[in-house]
Amino acid sequence: MALQIIELKEKEILRSRYEIIRFHAQGGMSKVYLARDLVKPTLQWAVKVTHTSHPLFKRIVQEAKILSELDYPAIPKIADFFTSNDGQLFYLVQEFLDGRTLLSFIKEEPLSFAKLLDFSVQICDCLAYLHNMKPEPIVYRDLKPGNIIVNENNQIKLVDFGIARKFREEQLHDTVKIGTVGFAAPEQFERKQTDQRTDIFSLGAMLYYILSGGKYVYIAQKPIENFCPDLPKEFVNCLNKMVQLNPEQRPNSINDVKLCFLEIAEQREKNEAIIIRKHEGKEEEMISGQISSLSFEENGKPDIPEQLISDIKAGTAKKQSAKPEMIGKGKHKHQKSSLILLSIVLVSAIIYVALLFIDF
Hints:
Layout: E1 13-14, E2 18-26, E3 31-37, E4 44-51, H1 57-68, E5 78-83, E6 89-95, E7 100-101, H2 102-108, H3 113-131, E8 138-139, E9 148-150, E10 156-158, E11 165-166, H4 196-211, H5 217-220, H6 233-242, H7 254-292, H8 306-322, H9 329-359
Antiparallel strand pairs: 1-2, 2-3, 3-4, 4-6, 5-6, 7-9, 8-11, 9-10
């Protein structure tokens, strides 16, 4: 109910710097507005607003604190956070992301397996950055298609760190049991502490969801091959390990998962290259066969077809029989003309064959 009373107006100015342009989106805990930076007019920001009376208000504050410590290309940069003068509203100003969610992406166009692998590797890199934070790793805990933004260059951004937490080894279980049903690991709803393997489960559950056409892994209870029988065996094995209910049976780190995806992508590229080379080889064989059909004499001169020579001789004989034999200079003149005519025909034939050779 608290969200209903949040209503920022166009051109409203926050903290003498951020001018509201328009409403952008609404999440479970907040509303998001697009704002212009009055100090740096070329910049636009996403302003996330929540009421301080919201039951999960502390989560927004925690998100602000966590984001302020992070610096990674696939994570939105935070610019500012503050409360309203009356203390009723909390504002989180962060990088505005121009793109669409992965959920919208898969609904609007087919997602190839190669592109899915690329997105997955990018997500692995981002999670690896979080999991290797010092002194305390960060567990994201809310990986799902709606929390991944894809820009026009197919680069991903991970958004909404509202339930992210720092992993503390001495802590036996999470303070709050929270997560998105369908993508959250079982331990997020049990009296256990979440860790890096929790995010590995969520990534596997998200991949299962995408590949199965919208099925949740622990509701469908079917092997992914039932939906995608042509998936590489290595990918299927990796995915099956990622979504094990017992964290001990999942891959130990997100880097192990990334390595598996990279090996699969590399093998696919090699297979495609082999197919292309075979295709090109067949084309070369066809061209070679066509070229070899042109025969040449040992001295390198074109082998003129016998029928063409016969036609030339027949034409010459016809001309000779059509006129009386001449004596003296006239006879020599006639023979010279015949030789010139024969030479012209032979040269034309040679040029014709040469042109055929060039075409091939």
